[in-house]
Each structure stands twice: as structure tokens, then as C-alpha cells.
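Whiteboard transcription, Tuesday session. T.W. wrote the C-alpha cells on the left side:
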């Protein structure tokens, strides 16, 4: 059965956890969806995992379109979300639409962009024109040089309140999903309970509607520093398939993320 945004919304309403992984090619697309991963995120993290850059900033729209096409060709049933890369959407809603159209033409079912209230007008512009949008708040890697590093966000009461306002603004503007990255579990749970749309957490605790990890982190093959919230599922698994099945099982049961993966 094909996964749609409606499916994900219904899963969240029933409390069935959504399993998401990043995916950048056709072979992994088939493997991941065969193991029960509902959403494939063509993340701009490919700048780090595939291209060896030390941030996501150098990734281009044509890089994203290429990998989105690879994933779409290998996938029959997953819901495909593609990241709008740095510089391809921040200028104006019109620029965002032009960029999003390229990713949708490459086979994405939804585009993801980083930012909260500041992106509300852009989210409304895209969704009014038939392009589903996923928000992404908390640790937004395209802002690493403003954030001062890859670190947990929303720790102060003021920052937490701002993240809640950001999430509500994205939902109000028509976003269908929101990624919460590297925020305290208590805050992610609070945001999730105040929204009607599903939240997808990465380093945001077990209270989100779904979980996402970078594929190379969950396979233990990323050579750089991996975040505290990543878990190597190859540890104890005999194959990539078994590792992905373990990830899906642990997301569904709530066993992942455990306290050691959580802020
Ligand atoms: N391989 C990979 N995994 C990711 O999760 C990921 C990427 N790449 N690229 C884009 C961003 C960058 N991310 C990161 C990278 C590092 C940390 C990290 O090391 N955080 C430290 C805390 C550092 C601090 O507070 O100063 C940690 O302990 O988790 C977090 C998120 C998440 N995303
Ligand atoms: C980690 C996820 C949320 C992401 O944005 C990416 O892989 O680029
Ligand atoms: Mg990304």
C-alpha cells in the first residue's frame, strides 16, 4: 500500500509511530521501504554523508533533484520528502516555488525547508499551489554558522516558547509535517501535543509522532563525529536488512530513542 500524507496523519492520530530514514539512492529506497520505513527523506545531509563536506551548505538544487530522482525510481510505496537546499528558498516564496517544483518533478511527494515563523509565508505560498511542505525547526543545520555549532536548541524558556510559536505558525500556514531536531524531549512532547500534524523527531525524545535518523549514522558508517542522538543499528545485526528491521521495530515499540539518545 502506498503511504500518503493522509496515512501519516492517521498513524499519528492512532499513536502508531512513523519510521523515517534518510535515503539517497534507488537500492536503499527499495531496501528501506521493504523493511517497513514509511517515509524516505532525501536529506541535504547527503552533503556530509555522500559528498564529504563538513556542512550541508554546499549542496545544490541539482544535487537534490538528482538524488530525489534516484530514490523515486527505486521506491514503489514510501512517501518521499526532499530537502530544499541552502539558498534555494530563503529569498522569496517565488524562489521557493521554483525550487520545490524541480524536486517535485524529480519525484518528491513533499519538500522540506528549515525555519519557523520566518518561513510561514513561503509555506502558505507553496501549499496553496499544491506542494506539500514539511517544516524543520530546532537545530537547523543550514544555520550552523549562526547557531555556533551543531548543538541542542530550545533549552531556555524563551527559546522553548519561540519553538512552540514556530511550530504553530508552520501548521497554521499549511505544513503537513514538522521535523524537530535536537530539542529537549519535554519540549518536543509539548509541541507534539499542541499540534494536529505529525512531528518527526531527531534527538527530540520518544514523544514525537515519528523518528528519523541519518542512514549512515544508523548503519555506523559515517566517518565523522556522530550526534549523541544517533544509534548504530548494525551493532548486533547480521545484515543491513536486519539493522533496518531493528530500527523500524524499535521506533514502532518506542524503544528508540532511549534516554541516552535524548536531551
Ligand atoms: N551524519 C550526520 N548525521 C546527522 O544527524 C546530521 C548530519 N550528518 N548532517 C546535518 C546535521 C548535522 N547534525 C548534527 C551533527 C552533530 C551533532 C553533535 O555532535 N552534537 C553534539 C553536541 C555538540 C554541542 O553541544 O556542542 C552531541 O553530543 O550530540 C548534532 C547534530 C545533524 N545532521
Ligand atoms: C536529519 C534530517 C532531518 C535532515 O534534514 C537531513 O538528513 O538532511
Ligand atoms: Mg536536512
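and on the right, the sequence the group agreed on:
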Amino acid at each position: 500500500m502506498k503511504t500518503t500524507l493522509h496515512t501519516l496523519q492517521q498513524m499519528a492520530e492512532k499513536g502508531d509511530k512513523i519510521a523515517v530514514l534518510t535515503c539517497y539512492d534507488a537500492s536503499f529506497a527499495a531496501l528501506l521501504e521493504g523493511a517497513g520505513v514509511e517515509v524516505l527523506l532525501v536529506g541535504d545531509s547527503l552533503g556530509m554523508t555522500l559528498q564529504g563536506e563538513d556542512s550541508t551548505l554546499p549542496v545544490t538544487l541539482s544535487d537534490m533533484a538528482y538524488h530525489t530522482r534516484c530514490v523515486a525510481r527505486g521506491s514503489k510505496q514510501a512517501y518521499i520528502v526532499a530537502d530544499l537546499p541552502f539558498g534555494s528558498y530563503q529569498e522569496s516564496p517565488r524562489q521557493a516555488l521554483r525550487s520545490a517544483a524541480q524536486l517535485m518533478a524529480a519525484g518528491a511527494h513533499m519538500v522540506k525547508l528549515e525555519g519557523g515563523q520566518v518561513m510561514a509565508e513561503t509555506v502558505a505560498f507553496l501549499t496553496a499551489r499544491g506542494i506539500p511542505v514539511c517544516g524543520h525547526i530546532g537545530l537547523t543545520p543550514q544555520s550552523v554558522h549562526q547557531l555556533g555549532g551543531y548543538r541542542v536548541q530550545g533549552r531556555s524558556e524563551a527559546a522553548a516558547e519561540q519553538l512552540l510559536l514556530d511550530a504553530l505558525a508552520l501548521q497554521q500556514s499549511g505544513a503537513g509535517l514538522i521535523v524537530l531536531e535536537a530539542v529537549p524531549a519535554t519540549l518536543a512532547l509539548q509541541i507534539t501535543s499542541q499540534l494536529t500534524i505529525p512531528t518527526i523527531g531527531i534527538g527530540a525524545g520518544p514523544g514525537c509522532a515519528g523518528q528519523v535518523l541519518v542512514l549512515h549514522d544508523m548503519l555506523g558508517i559515517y566517518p565523522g563525529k556522530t550526534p549523541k542522538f544517533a544509534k548504530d543499528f548494525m551493532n548486533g545485526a547480521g545484515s543491513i536488512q536486519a539493522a533496518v528491521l531493528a530500527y523500524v521495530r524499535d521506533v514502532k515499540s518506542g524503544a528508540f530513542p532511549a534516554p541516552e539518545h535524548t536531551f
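Someone added at the bottom: Residues 157-172 form the longest helix (16 residues).
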